[in-house]
Structure formats: C-alpha cells, structure tokens
Write a structure and sequence with these properties.
The chain is mainly alpha-helical. The chain contains 15 helices and no strands. It is globular. The chain starts with a helix and ends with a helix.
C-alpha cells in the first residue's frame, strides 16, 4: 500500500485549501474588491463543488480510467490557475477561479476512491492517510500568516500555483489499484432520497454549510478589522484545524459509545454557540481561541458523523452517489449560498452576519433532530 504517495496527495491538496480559504479574501481586498465581489468569487469555490465531482465521477465510471482522469484534472488545474498572473480584474478572476476550481474540486472525490481501493484490506488506515491533509493545512496557514506579515499578500497566487503543481506531480507517483466490487442495493437511489431521515439529513447539511459562509469568506477580514496580525490570524485558523485533527483521531471510539444522532445534534448546538461568540466578542482573544476549538464540532464531528450517515443510508453501488449528493448539497450548494448571502450582508453588519449564521445552524439542529426522530420511528 503506497502510504506516503497517497498521503502526499492529501497534504498538497489541503495546502491549497490552507492558502485559499484564510487568505484569498485578503488578497481580493488588496485588489480593492468590495464585499459583494469577494462573496461572489468565494461562492464560485462552492458552486463548482456541486457540478464538478458528479461530472468527473460519471466520466470515471464510464471510462474506467479514474487515475488518468485525476492526473488530467490536476494538470488542467495548474494550467488554468496560471492565467491569474495575466490579469487581476474582477471578471477575469471570476473566470479563472471558475475554471480552476472546476478541475481542482473534481479530483478529490475521485482520489478518495483510489485511496479506498488501495485500503480494501485495511480500511481502518484511512484516517492515518487523510490526517496528512489536515497537517498540510495547518502548516500552510501558520507559515503564510507569518509570511504575509512581512511581504505583500499579492504574492498569494504564487504559493497557490506551486502547491497546485505539487498536487499534479504527486498524482503521477500513485498507481492504480484494483476496483472493489459492491453488493447490490435493495432500494433505488431515488427511493433512498425520499426517506425522511435522509432528506432531513441533507437539509441539515445544507444549512450547516450555509452557516459557515461568513467564516470561510470573511473570517480573516473580520479579525484584521479588529487589529489581529496575520500571524495571529493564521494561528487561529491552524488551531481550528488542530482541533479537527484531534476529533478525527478519536471519532472511531466516540461514535459507537455516544451514537451518531446525539453527536450530530450536540455538535450543531455547539456550532450555534461558536457563531454567536464570533458575532458578539471578536475583541476577546480567549473567547476567539475557544471559538476556534469549537471547530472540532462545527466541522470535525459533523463531517465524520455525516460520512457515517452516508455509509448507513446509501449502500452498495449507491455509496458513491450518496457521497456526491452529500458534498454537492452541503459543501456545494450550502457553501455557495452562505458565501453569497455573507457578501450581501457583510457591509451592513459583520456581527449581524454571524448572528444569522447562528440562526442557520439552529435550523440545521432542528432538521437533524427531526431526522433522528424519523430514523427511530
């Protein structure tokens, strides 16, 4: 099993995330883009998650050449992102990000399948490989926070380009594994989606990611407006990722003991608390540190629980489709709507924007509770 080659891909992929998510808003602000423009471009990052994984998945299944398509997608991501160096106008950047993220967002879901194919005899080792993605994220957000306190944020695209190039190079080192055979499912995909527990779960996922819109789009700008240094901002982002890593490492023990339903509900309740803390106490450093620790629940626990719920609801050959619909509805549609709404509201009141994020998380909590009731009835 090519442990380091698989791990390297995740590390480089999430280095791009670590550069894009915390710092791209600051880069766009340096180009004098307003909040609506920043929110619109941030929404593109999410919108392509709705379309790209499904198209790339269909192509992979039809062609049977998954790894070749991953390599092609990585190469096209490198080439398309290079266009950012020719122009920095709003329309040009919107187009570059659309094309780049179409290919970049497409490859991860397919690489997950390659990884699971390699781990068919050792599925428990998945977390040991995936954790390198989180470690890559932490390394980059801390390092770039320090760097951008010393050089201009306008150099950000150069770092993203290098990290994207490393993703492509690492994909060349991975070999194809034999495909797994899945047992047939008793229900059709449409029948599964119509089950109350499933659509309440998807509604909760949509609202949860919608609530993250102000965080992923404007959190760095928000902190900078309260005179946090970029080094401190990077450390706070890293703290959230470290908390996420800690949860991933113990989740296999927590889920059997506490149950996926209670974990989902309590994590959503803590998400409401997190957004309210950020809304009301941005100048209080200890509370901002605590809010970042809550990332362990607002993302780490909820995502781990969601993946388990996908596994339970979607069986056999529907598992891949189930993962795609979860990612598309939650991180795609929910994230895009959250980014756009945050862009519309931000200029009026950042605090109100985070308060409304807490309301969205509370509605996600209600949907999750209804889903748990539907499963038990």
């Amino acid at each position: 099993m090519p442990y380091w080659r698989l791990s390297g891909f995740y590390a480089f992929y999430f280095m791009v995330v670590g550069a894009l998510v915390p710092y791209f808003g600051l880069y766009l602000q340096s180009l004098d883009f307003n909040a609506k423009q920043i929110g619109f471009i941030a929404s593109i990052l999410m919108l392509t998650k709705i379309i790209a994984p499904n198209i790339w998945g269909w192509l992979s299944e039809r062609s049977g050449k998954r790894l070749k398509l991953i390599r092609l997608g990585c190469l096209l991501a490198v080439i398309s992102f290079a266009a950012i160096f020719f122009n920095q106008s709003f329309l040009w950047l919107a187009w570059v990000i659309t094309v780049f993220t179409f290919f970049w967002n497409a490859v991860l879901a397919q690489f997950e399948v390659v990884t699971l194919d390699h781990l068919v005899e050792q599925p428990e080792r998945y977390s040991q490989i995936r954790v390198w993605g989180s470690l890559g994220f932490v390394a980059v957000v801390v390092a770039l926070g320090w760097v951008f306190d010393r050089i201009a944020i306008t150099y950000l695209p150069h770092f993203i380009f290098v990290f994207t190039l490393l993703i492509w190079l690492s994909s060349l080192s991975v070999k194809e594994a034999s495909h797994r055979e899945y047992a047939p499912s008793a229900l059709g995909f449409g029948q599964i989606l119509r089950k109350p527990a499933v659509y309440y779960f998807l509604i909760a996922s949509f609202l949860l990611q919608l609530s993250h819109g102000p965080y992923y789009t404007f959190y760095s700008l928000y902190l900078e407006s309260y005179d946090y240094s970029r080094t401190t901002i990077g450390l706070l982002w890293a703290l959230g990722a470290v908390a996420e890593i800690a949860v991933f490492l113990v989740m296999h023990r927590l889920m059997p003991r506490l149950g996926v339903g209670p974990l989902f509900i309590w994590s959503l309740a803590l998400t409401v608390c997190r957004w309210m803390l950020i809304a009301l106490f941005p100048e209080n450093v200890p509370l901002m540190v605590f809010a970042q620790v809550l990332h362990a629940f607002s993302f780490g626990t909820t995502h781990a629980v969601a993946m388990e719920l996908v596994r339970q609801h979607f069986s056999g050959r529907h598992l891949g489709q189930g993962q795609a619909i979860y990612l598309s509805v939650g991180f795609g549609a929910g994230g895009a709507v959250g980014a756009v709404l945050a862009g519309q509201l931000w200029a009026s009141s950042p605090s109100l924007t985070y308060t409304l994020a807490a309301v969205a998380a509370a509605l996600a909590l209600l949907a999750a509770w209804l889903g748990v009731r539907a499963r038990s009835s």
